[in-house]
Write a structure and sequence with these properties.
It is a single chain. With about 160 residues, the chain is α+β, with helices and mostly antiparallel strands. It has two domains: about 80 residues, no CATH class; about 60 residues. Helices cover about 30% and strands about 20% of the residues. The protein starts with a helix and ends with a strand. About 10% of the residues are buried. The mean pLDDT is about 75.
C-alpha cells in the first residue's frame, strides 16, 4: 500500500513546480491515465475497507498492537519496523458467541484468501458474490479447519441486508 501511495504522490507531484513552458511534457497519455486512475481507485478501495475495519474493531489499543512503521528508503526497498510499537500489548481477541452473531449484520471484506465478516466469521468460497456487501448472518457452523483460531465460525446461510 505504501508503494501505491508513493507512486500517486510522485506521479501527481511531477508538474507541481514547473513553468508554463515545460508543462506540456507532463500531460498524461492514455496508458498513464489508466495506471494513475487504477492507483487512485485502489487507494479509495483501501480507505473504504479501512473505515469498515475500524467500525468493526473499535479497540484502539488492540489496533495499535498491529501497527508497523513502514519506511521506503532511497533504494526502493521497503523496511518494516515492529520495534517502534513494542510498548503496546496485544490482548487475545474475544470471540462473540454464535447466538449473538446469528441475525446480526456485517460488511464482508476480502482478506485475500476468503471473505470475512465481523472479524471472526469466514464465508464459503461459493459465497464470493457477497464480497464488499452488507449481509445478515442466518446460520453459522463451527470451523474445524486450519484457520479455526482466526475464523472460529463459517457462515453457512446468509442474505443481503
Amino acid at each position: 500500500m505504501s508503494t501505491i501511495v508513493w507512486n500517486l504522490i510522485q506521479f501527481s507531484n511531477e508538474a507541481s513546480h514547473t513553468s508554463e513552458k515545460t508543462t506540456a511534457s507532463y500531460f498524461i497519455n492514455y496508458a498513464d491515465k489508466e495506471i494513475f486512475f487504477g492507483y487512485t481507485l485502489l487507494l479509495c478501495n483501501f480507505i473504504k475497507w479501512f473505515g469498515h475495519y475500524v467500525e468493526q474493531h473499535p479497540n484502539k489499543e488492540e489496533n495499535l498492537s498491529f501497527h508497523c512503521i513502514i519506511t521506503t528508503p532511497q533504494n526502493g526497498q521497503v523496511k518494516a519496523d515492529k520495534k517502534a510499537v513494542q510498548g503496546v500489548t496485544t490482548k487475545r481477541k474475544e470471540v462473540p458467541s454464535k447466538e449473538s452473531l446469528i441475525g446480526s449484520t456485517g460488511y464482508v471484506i476480502n482478506t485475500g484468501k476468503v471473505g470475512q465478516v465481523k472479524g471472526c466469521c469466514k464465508l464459503k468460497p461459493e459465497d464470493k458474490q457477497f464480497m464488499f456487501k452488507t449481509i445478515r448472518i442466518l446460520e453459522l457452523k463451527e470451523n474445524d479447519g486450519y484457520d479455526a483460531e482466526q475464523y472460529p465460525y463459517i457462515v453457512s446461510k446468509l442474505e443481503l441486508a
